[in-house]
């Protein structure tokens, strides 16, 4: 129960970090590359830790965190590389961001399909935001626009979409229940 609550709260915190990062990225196009690398590395490591905690939690539906162990380890390794090699890999940060968003969006597409099979009515919202985030991930990788300003806006929107997708997925699929209440309800159902 405690791990599940930590995972849910961690996902919500990471979502808000993505919101803030997206807004900052859109508004401040002259941020130092070193600051961007260090912040990116820290966020990736935190995100990886939250994903691993989520995978190890006892989620009732087991939807939100089903692919998170491998993703968490991957994010931690990429975060450490980003911190250690910061300026040498700065030209790869933007495409890596697009790949991260695209990968997460594709995994959330699977989560939305599983949520539909499971009978959750909100599966379609997860699907819609997964598609939106995936589109931004592709746009970040492909860079169809040449202007720095539009590139920053697309990258910021990609971060916002990633945050919304994660926030919505956790909100709609992670249910924290009290085991005593569940047990009591089950006993009442069998006595009737």
Mind sketching the topology for me?
Layout: H1 2-27, H2 33-56, H3 68-84, H4 90-118, H5 123-142, H6 148-173, H7 179-191
Structure commentary:
The longest helix is centred in the middle third of the chain and has 29 residues, at 90-118. Helix content is 81%, strand content 0%. It has 7 helices and no strands. α2 (33-56) packs antiparallel against α3 (68-84) and α4 (90-118) packs antiparallel against α5. The protein is mostly helical and 192 residues long.
Radius of gyration: 18 Å
Output the helix-strand order: HHHHHHH
Give the averaged pLDDT, no decimals: 84
Percent in helix: over 70%
Shape: globular
How many DSSP E strands?
0
Which band does the percent of strand residues land in?
under 5%
Unreliable spans are 179-192
Helical segment count: 7
* Derived structural class: mainly alpha
- Biggest sheet, in brief? none
How far from one another are the termini? Answer: 29 Å
Entry keywords:
192 residues, mainly alpha, 0% strand, disordered C terminus
């Amino acid at each position: 129960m405690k791990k599940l609550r930590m995972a849910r709260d961690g996902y919500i915190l990471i979502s808000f970090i993505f919101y803030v990062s997206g807004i900052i990225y859109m508004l401040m196009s002259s941020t130092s590359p070193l600051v961007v690398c260090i912040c990116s590395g820290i966020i990736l490591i935190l995100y990886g830790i939250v994903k691993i905690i989520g995978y190890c939690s006892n989620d009732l539906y087991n939807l939100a965190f089903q692919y998170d162990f491998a993703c968490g380890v991957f994010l931690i390794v990429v975060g450490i590389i980003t911190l250690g090699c910061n300026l040498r890999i700065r030209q790869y940060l933007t495409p890596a961001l697009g790949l991260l968003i695209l990968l997460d969006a594709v995994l959330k597409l699977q989560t939305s399909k599983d949520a539909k099979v499971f009978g959750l009515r909100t599966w379609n919202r997860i699907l819609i935001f997964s598609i939106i985030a995936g589109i931004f991930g592709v746009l970040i990788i492909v860079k169809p626009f040449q202007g720095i300003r539009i590139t920053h806006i697309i990258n910021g929107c990609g971060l916002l979409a990633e945050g919304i997708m994660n926030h919505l997925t956790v909100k709609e699929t992670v249910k924290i229940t009290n085991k005593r209440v569940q047990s009591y309800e089950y006993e009442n159902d069998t006595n009737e």
